[in-house]
Amino acid sequence: MAPESAPDGGSSEGDLIVMAEPSRTVVHLLRHGEVYNPEGVLYGRLPGYVLSDLGHEMAQRAADALRDHDVTHVIASPMERAQQTANPIAGVHGLAIETEPLIIEADNIFEGQKVSVGDGVLKQPRTWRHLWNPLRPSWGEPYDEVAARMGAAIDSARGLARGHEAVLVSHQLPIWIARLAAEKRRLWHDPRSRQCSLASLTSLTFDEDALVAITYTEPSRDLLGRASKVAGA
């Protein structure tokens, strides 16, 4: 005999009540705000790189953009800049920040050095041996490994926030690789093509376990012109 419909939208059979589980879950991938980096180096996983004043303003813009969303988990990379960006979002929703090592910045052999095109370490012949394979890439963590750990973190967040929304505060390269993987596109790319500005949101919407939409927004768009043109992510 089929279960009868319950008045609250669930179903019942005798004393058993089965509630219908919400099917829509959103996982927001938020890049951190601007970092104070007067030396203009690639800071990567180096400690001590924190948000600039403008970066804090960007973090608040992200919090304002998510204020009316059904956020139940705020999860951040261990890096200081990600934790600081997560702080106002967690505050708006009365949540504690959860730390997830899987969404940390990608490892890079050039950390602590200037890597701008035509400047710094890339002009030195001794470093060219690290540039032989841009498809992997040979100078840092392989793209497929970044995709795997970001995918695992997204799946975990989706499970925690099922029927609600979660925010993962990460870094430009991991977020962009996660998007390429979600869209089933090739992972190697020109860094200049990344659609992942400071404090931007790449939002993945799931119906049950199926990804049904990817949207991109820039709550700090009008602040980007004030951002320093320095290396980092």
What is this structure's SSE topology?
Blueprint: E1 4-5, E2 11-13, E3 16-18, E4 24-31, H1 53-65, E5 71-76, H2 80-93, E6 97-99, H3 143-160, E7 165-170, H4 172-182, E8 201-207, E9 210-217
Parallel strand pairs: 4-7, 5-6, 5-7
Antiparallel strand pairs: 1-2, 2-3, 4-8, 8-9
Helix pairs in contact: 1-2, 3-4
What can you see in these coordinates?
With 233 residues, the chain is an alpha/beta fold. It has a single domain, classed as Rossmann fold, CATH 3.40.50. The chain has four helices and nine strands, in the order E-E-E-E-H-E-H-E-H-E-H-E-E. The chain has a six-stranded mixed sheet with strand order 6-5-7-4-8-9, with helices on both faces.
Summed up:
By secondary structure, the protein is α/β, with parallel strands linked by helices. The protein contains 4 helices and 9 strands. It has one domain (20-226): Rossmann fold (3-Layer(aba) Sandwich), CATH 3.40.50.1240.
Number of strands: 9
Q: How many angstroms does the end-to-end distance come to?
A: 58 Å
SSE string, helix = H, strand = E?
EEEEHEHEHEHEE
What strand order characterises the main sheet?
6-5-7-4-8-9
Main pleated-sheet profile:
6 strands, mixed
Number of spatially distinct domains: 1
- CATH C-level category: Alpha Beta
Quick one: overall form?
Answer: globular
Portion of residues in beta strands equals 15-25%
With helices defined by DSSP (H or I, 4 residues minimum), what is the helix count?
4
How much helix, percentage-wise, in residues?
Answer: 10-25%
